[in-house]
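Lecture notes, structural biology module. Today: joint structure prediction for complexes of two components.
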Amino acid sequence: MMDNTDQLFDDYLSGELSESQKREFEERLDSDETFRKKFDAHKMILGAIYASHDKKLLAEIADQKVKHLKPLYYWSIAASLLLIATVIWLIPFNSEEALISEGKVFNTPVNFTTKALAFTSTVDSLTIQLNHIKGTPRYEFSDTLKLYILKDPVKVEFSIKYFEDVKFYELTLDSRIYKLKRNSSGSLE
Amino acid sequence: MDDRSIFLAIARFDKTLESEAIKTIYRQVSKPVKNFVVTNSGTSEEAEDILQDAIIIFLNKVRLKELQQLTSKISTYIFAVARNNWLYTLRKKGRMPISELKIISDDPSNLDEDSAIYTQVLGKLMDLIKEPCKSIITTFYLDRLSIKQMAEKFGYKDENGMKKKKSLCMKTAREMANDLLTIEYEL
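The predicted structure, tokenised, for the full assembly:
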């Protein structure tokens, strides 16, 4: 025999019970622990489904808020922070601005960082690590996109787009465009 | 949209207005929540997570009839949830800002562990529910398809078979939910 409790729970949650049925339902929640636990579990399932949907929508909303990255010229801040960050290059970004692409948009925001910038889009996720070197600019791209770039100038204009249909990333670094694929490495010259 | 229209759109699962309602909420609370987190030892990524989790908690409270009427502004409610969750996270991570320590010690009820881990637990549950049950439950409760439409979509001969399968899926999911409800989580 099928359990009709789900239907009762759904009717309560969608406001389809009459006032007396609603009262009876709520009294039972107070007096019948098994019933209440079952209802709690039912709400948790629905909550999980709604949350999963809302997360996607909120990520899209967050993405729509972001704008193309622009460099900031916080020379004094950068100079002091560089004393601390000796290995990883610190690039100052405006915390209110982040990345956007015409196709898929990475969910930022981007902030001042000394380690990695983690972007999660609805289709992919990408961690970017920025490293300062003195030699030839290059990249290594597997799970993490590691960029080894020159220290000067401190200002760096930086953005990345993902083209889902052809599965490549378009990296713009100081107005120069590079097409990168996962599981590859090479020069950035 | 004003608070009342937003509340009704969420509570009534109004597909036409719900998306606009959520966008309005995001716009209203985004800046204060992010400012609070970032000025209290948080990164912008953590701020975004806290913001989105607080909005999700509000939405679910309304949809699941745990919040049946507004006693404050929606933005005030969500900010309070976000603040609470962030302070709880900081304390768990040992990163509690000195300025907030006194507030917490004066009123321990400010910290609501259930709220702070709510979205994580829901995420775990979604991971545990396997196909085809995940699609069946989602189609029923999110896409709001009738049992008849679902029977066609999932290839069941009649509505009875579809009803039985959906009922079985809910039973299994409920057992998983009960298991999760009895586990203690660490942030």
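Point to remember: DSSP finds nine helices and no strands in chain B.
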